[in-house]
Amino acid sequence: MGFAHNNVLHSNHFRKDWQRRVRTWFDQPGRKLRRRNARKTKAAALGVRPLTLLRPAVRAQTVRYNRKVREGRGFTLAELKEVGINRKEARGVGIVVDHRRRNLSEEGKKLNVERLKAYKAKLIVFPRNAKKPKKGDSTGADLEAETTRTHLPLPAPYVHEAPRKITDDERSFEAFKTLRVARADARYEGVRKIRAAKKEEEEANKKK
After folding, report:
1. Against a cut of 0.90, is the pTM above it?
2. Mean pLDDT of 76-103
3. pLDDT value at 141 more than 70
4. What radius of gyration do the chain's Cα atoms show?
């Protein structure tokens, strides 16, 4: 390597004890096994309870990802009220509550209400004391029913339509123009109202 001009001389450090500073990962297979055994122990300790808590189905954020449906943090208070589940007892039966989330659409609310109803229909609450079951505990044949620990699957993000021909109305529809006109109407609504009121006032003054 040659040197030219009035530049700083290189001082490359090639004699470092690099082997002392290498991070190894030889315990990776052992840790994998340990995590697996811990999951088995936890599942056995849970008894017949579901392995995961029930969470709502929500749309992912932004225009790029909102076609996807994923699990949200927790159900809203309005969704729980619709089904008739108390917010305090919800966590006791494996339902997560998020007091901050708000329902912005009727479709999303309906989807999660149906999800809660389906969960509630399958739910079996074993009483602490079999002789004195409390309100909300399962009784009789429900206690002998077959149990499953799998969680409710997420609903399909959209309903698939069968292929069909494009109609004449759809072909002649101008989507961009319609959106721009609607946007302009919303933007100038206030100005147009003021203008119309002013015109009515002028006409009324003329009649006098």
Report:
1. no
2. 93
3. no
4. 32
Give dist(CA 208, CA 193) in Å, integer.
23
- Can you tell me whether residue 54 is helix, strand or coil? strand
Residue 76 and residue 106: Cα distance in Å, rounded? 13
Binned at pLDDT 50, 70 and 90, residue 142 comes out as low
Residue 151 CA to residue 53 CA, distance in Å, equals: 8
pLDDT of residue 152: 87
Q: What is the pLDDT of residues 162-202, one digit of tens each?
A: 999 999 999 999 999 999 999 999 999 999 999 999 999 99
Instruction: List the one residue out of 101, 47, 44 whose CA is nearest residue 75.
Output: 101
Is residue 35 predicted with pLDDT exceeding 90? yes
Q: Rounded distance, CA 101 to CA 111, Å?
A: 15
* Rounded to 5°, angle at Cα 32 from 29 and 34: 110
Give Cα 58 to chain centroid, integer Å. Answer: 3
Length of the chain, in residues: 208
**Of 87, 73, 82, which Cα lies nearest the Cα of 109?**
82
Q: What is the largest CA-CA distance in the chain?
A: 103
Distance from C-alpha of 146 to C-alpha of 176, rounded to nearest angstrom:
55
Burial tier of 76 (Cβ tally within 10 Å: 0-12, 13-18, 19+):
buried
Rounded (5°) CA angle 26-32-38: 135
